[in-house]
């Protein structure tokens, strides 16, 4: 895999990012992809290790060693090294429905499990994946996954986040008639409303939804199951129902003063900011009135406005 002794010859490269000055001008994504040449060099660093832990996806307590969906990482790293980006995309898409999402927002446990981490920087797996899928879209290799034949059975999927979208694409591809219900204005779940534009541009999500619609999947938005449509109505119309509602209840902290003014859940803030940018609401209600802001959590997901 890769170039012989490439891991000794080349250093790990991170994806380039816009400067802080440029980031302040808008809410657009700030991380840039590799060029083909940069990706090839990073692929050259992938060595022929005996056990590629990067792709094992083994559970270890509450963590996962390697890729949770079992991507064939060393194989598409080698294809990228040889500049075969189409072959790399085909190999990547065998295990990953949405590399356009994971290549941007996945926490990359594969890199932390890379054998190279024993004594040097890991392979830039996430950056390579991002470049593969961007190349695929730019060259028109990404096509709707049409079913070979259509079955009479109908399936309802409640929730259009990553799980709902993956279930919809897989079931539609084998021929079932799939309808996805989403209570929000646009499909995508946390991809649309929980991850800020600076990390995942919403047009990336919309581009994927359009491909799925072209393949025959129906999306019904602004439909709250249990309110607008009852369980009995769903069961009467569909042969199977899949619940992909996600973990929507925030983990509260019963601290003194918790119910005071100006204390908000991160998801409420992120959702409102996306709705504001999308034009779904005209005015935000959750804002920071001054510069003294405390964020409880491991990562800042969005700018304070």
Summarize the structure in words.
The protein is an alpha/beta fold and 305 residues long. The protein is 36% helix and 8% strand. It contains 13 helices and six strands. The protein has a four-stranded parallel β-sheet with strand order 5-4-3-6, sandwiched between helices. A two-stranded antiparallel sheet has the order 1-2. A hairpin with a 2-residue loop joins strand 1 and strand 2 (63-65). Helix 3 packs across helix 4 and helix 3 (36-44) runs antiparallel to helix 8. The chain is globular and about 60 Å long. The model is unreliable at 300-305 (pLDDT under 50).
- Beta content comes to 5-15%
Strand order of the largest sheet: 5-4-3-6
Compute the average pLDDT: 91
Unreliable segments of 5+ consecutive residues: 300-305
Query: Terminal Cα separation, in Å?
Result: 46 Å
**SS-based class:** alpha/beta
Helical amount among residues, as a percent range? 25-40%
* Radius of gyration (Å): 21 Å
- The string of secondary-structure elements, in order, is HHHEEHHHHHEHEHHEHEH
* Shape assignment: globular
Q: What's the number of helices?
A: 13
Largest sheet: 4 strands, parallel
Number of strands: 6
Multimeric organization: single chain
């Amino acid at each position: 895999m890769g170039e012989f002794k490439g891991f000794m010859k080349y250093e790990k490269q991170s994806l380039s990012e816009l400067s802080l000055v440029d980031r302040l001008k808008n809410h657009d994504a700030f991380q840039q992809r590799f060029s083909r040449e940069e990706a090839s060099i990073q692929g050259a660093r992938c060595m022929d290790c005996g056990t590629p832990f990067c792709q094992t996806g083994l559970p270890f307590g509450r963590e996962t060693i390697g890729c949770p969906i079992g991507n064939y990482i060393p194989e598409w790293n080698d294809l990228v090294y040889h500049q075969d980006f189409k072959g790399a995309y085909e190999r990547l898409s065998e295990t990953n429905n949405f590399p356009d999402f994971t290549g941007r927002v996945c926490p990359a446990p594969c890199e932390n499990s890379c054998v190279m981490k024993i004594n040097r920087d890991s392979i830039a797996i996430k950056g390579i994946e991002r470049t593969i899928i961007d190349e695929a879209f730019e060259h028109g290799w990404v096509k709707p996954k049409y079913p070979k034949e259509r079955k009479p059975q109908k399936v309802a999927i409640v929730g259009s986040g990553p799980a709902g979208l993956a279930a919809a694409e897989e079931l539609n591809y084998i021929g079932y008639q799939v309808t996805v219900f989403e209570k929000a204005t646009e499909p995508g779940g946390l991809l649309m409303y929980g991850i800020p534009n600076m990390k995942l541009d919403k047009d990336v999500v919309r581009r994927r939804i359009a491909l799925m619609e072209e393949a025959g999947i129906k999306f019904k938005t602004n439909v709250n199951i249990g309110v607008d449509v009852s369980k009995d109505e769903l069961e009467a119309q569909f042969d199977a129902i899949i619940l992909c509602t996600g973990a929507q209840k925030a983990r509260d902290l019963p601290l003194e003063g918790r119910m005071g003014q100006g204390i908000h859940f991160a998801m409420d803030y992120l959702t409102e900011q996306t709705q504001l940018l999308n034009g779904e609401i005209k005015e935000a209600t959750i804002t920071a009135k001054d510069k003294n802001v405390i964020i409880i959590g491991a990562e800042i997901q969005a700018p304070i406005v």
